[in-house]
Amino acid sequence: MPDQPPIVIIVDDDEGVRLGLLDLMESVGLGARTYPAVQDFLNDGLPDAPSCLVLDVRLPGQSGLELQQRLVSAGVDVPIIFITGHADVQMSVRAMKAGAVEFLAKPFRDQDLLEAVHQALEKSREARRKVAQDQALTQKFAELTSREREILAFVTSGRLNKQIAADLGVAEITVKVHRAQVMRKMGARSLAELVRMADQLGLGPKS
């Protein structure tokens, strides 16, 4: 299923800036939403689509940096591009250390902002792909039987079929059948791929 069209979220208390940035985004075929303050944005929340924030540092109420910290603390992964007319080195370092994609001082070139936006949206797409892959993997694991999960843990910890059979008190052919089922259900084409999947699921080696 294709992803939703990307949305650029612009938060700036200057109406002229908001309208100018909205026009700029639309001129290159990007959807955008604009807000004069952090709380207005929070009332709507993030769209279910690849997105990024173009955020003024100084805003009425919560500042852009405070919003960044709030999102980081809440585990909300949205790329942020800061724009400001009052840049200082300490402020920009703080923003970049907290994960900002770019920190642009006004006036900036349209091209510089657009490049940062495209970079941020690609980060958002990649993060969404990762979440979708993790969810799909978790769903596949949930569909394994308890015995298949047991076999998965043994196999990915490096145990041989005959060792697993001895540990479980079953015939080696039974282990082979379960192992084939695990590979099929998980969609793994090799043992190495199955081990990577187990790592992604946080399944530690069986002691």
Describe this structure in words.
- There is one protein chain.
- This protein has a five-stranded parallel beta sheet, with helices on both faces.
- The model has no long low-confidence stretch (mean pLDDT 91).
- The chain folds into two domains: 125 residues, Rossmann fold (3-Layer(aba) Sandwich); 58 residues, Arc Repressor Mutant, subunit A (Orthogonal Bundle).
- The chain contains nine helices and five strands, in the order E-H-E-H-E-H-E-H-E-H-H-H-H-H.
- Helix 6 packs across helix 8 and helix 6 crosses helix 9.
- Helices cover 56% and strands 12% of the residues.
- Strand 1, helix 1 and strand 2 form a beta-alpha-beta unit.
- The chain starts with 6 loop residues before the first strand and ends in a 7-residue tail after the last helix.
- It has 207 residues and is α/β, with parallel strands linked by helices.
Question: How are the SSEs placed, and which strands pair?
Answer:
Layout lengths: L6 E5 L3 H13 L3 E5 L2 H7 L6 E6 L7 H10 L6 E5 L4 H9 L4 E4 L4 H33 L3 H11 L4 H8 L3 H15 L4 H10 L7
Parallel strand pairs: 1-2, 1-3, 3-4, 4-5
Helix pairs in contact: 6-8, 6-9, 7-8
Strand content: 5-15%
- Basic shape: elongated
Query: What name does CATH use for the topology of the largest domain?
Result: Rossmann fold
Radius of gyration using CA atoms only: 24 Å
Provide a quick synopsis of the model.
The chain has 207 residues and is of the alpha/beta class. Helices cover 56% and strands 12% of the residues.
